[in-house]
Amino acid sequence: xxxxxxxxxxxxxxxxxxxxxxxxxxxxxxxxxxxxxxxxxxxxxxxxxxxxxxxxxxxxxxxxxxxxxxxxxxxxxxxxxxxxxxxxxxxxxxxxxxxxxxxxxxxxxxxxxxxxxxxxxxxxxxxxxxxxxxxxxxxxxxxxxxxxxxxxxxxxxxxxxxxxxxxxxxxxxxxxxxxxxxxxxxxxxxxxxxxxxxxxxxxxxxxxxxxxxxxxxxxxxxxxxxxxxxxxxxxxxxxxxxxxxxxxxxxxxxxxxxxxxxxxxxxxxxxxxxxxxxxxxxxxxxxxxxxxxxxxxxxxxxxxxxxxxxxxxxxxxxxxxxxxxxxxxxx
Length: 331
Ligand code: KG4
Ligand code: ZN
Description:
Elements: E1 2-7, E2 12-19, E3 22-30, H1 42-63, E4 73-79, H2 83-100, E5 104-108, H3 109-114, E6 128-133, E7 138-145, E8 148-154, H4 160-170, H5 177-185, H6 210-222, H7 225-257, E9 262-266, H8 273-286, E10 289-291, H9 295-298, H10 302-314
Parallel strand pairs: 1-4, 4-5, 6-9, 9-10
Antiparallel strand pairs: 1-2, 2-3, 6-7, 7-8
């Protein structure tokens, strides 16, 4: 089955062609305009999707040596995300499906992240735990069987990616924060500063990152400017380590609580190299089977949407033309 995927939920315009679980093309255009504003400006995002999407679909089809007629179906993100951005992708998908008379399906963006590893294809044992950490979400999900999800932990305030973005802002480093913090942290000492690990011993599986962000703010404000500059790498590395520690210890607690042996990572934060290395080493030590998507499949992309749509289409599900965008959709 050859599926065209479309993703426009935030500031990445993406189209992909996936055949069964194989990615034939995955074109991602990151909108640069938001950098100068220190965050995503919703109207600019919608307008950029409007300008770019048809060209990106064309390139995705060409790279996959696929014509519109060759497609067996279409998949598009319908939530969660920015309403105006989601509308562009959903309308383009509906227009294509209408003219081609092909089946199509609206996909939940969070589920898209979770299935980015093509976990169904890889040798992952059920039940497994999925840790989703992106700019908008931080969730621990128990996956009992294919397409069967139970949220067992979530952030009570900021998402992990949001913490990276806010801390980068506090430190005057720019947007998006994740890759910048990772780069600055690479020359720092991760245990230089003992930032808090909120809720680590709480006994439940929830996260909290806003206190960590405030601790970084207070710490950097407490330093004279000339020292703060020198300590930037240590602050970034210690903050990053605090996030990684909490994400791993809660994942381990979830695995133990639900007697799961496999952990699947998902979302933009999983691009982080020290995080990938730490999880890999710890999972080896604890005998846990670990799956991490390739970096380009961690951040927003249409291949994960096409793959997730494929799984649901295979199940016989279809969307109809009354489907609306759902900016606050949950898993
Ligand atoms: O999944 P994603 O592309 O979009 C959402 O659905 O939110 O995730 C974006 C988030 C941003 O907060 C960004 O700062 C973070 O992922 N991120 C990273 C890295 N690359 C992106 N966080 C830590 N380290 C990175 N290398
Ligand atoms: Zn995302």
